[in-house]
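Technical note accompanying the year-one report. For the benefit of new consortium partners, we illustrate the data format agreed upon in the data management plan: each record pairs a sequence with a structure-token string. No post-processing was applied to the example shown here.
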Amino acid sequence: MKNYFRITCYCQAQDFCFILDCYGSFTELWQFSSFLVNKGLQVLEVGNSTKFLDGNLDRVSENSDKLLLRANTDGKPVYTTLTVDNITYSAVKVANKVYVPDKSKIV
């Protein structure tokens, strides 16, 4: 899963946020981020498959050239905590989906 990336974005103009995954669409994380910034979106969280923990968002298994919308909701994402194997992490929640964008951020 070398090219598996997950990004959380916020669109200030329309006041909504979303979690987007890609696996194969971009070779580098900065390319994915840049693509979204060029669309006028605010990138809030970024990570590759070694940086984030899935939470209740399972990873897709096939390499694809598509961007995958995992969750979306009105307003900004909610920052919360998630406990995995008795370790509590800083997490992000969009709608009913929650994941840990950076597993080095232990609360």
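Partners are asked to follow this layout when depositing records. Residues 1 and 72 are 24 Å apart (CA to CA).
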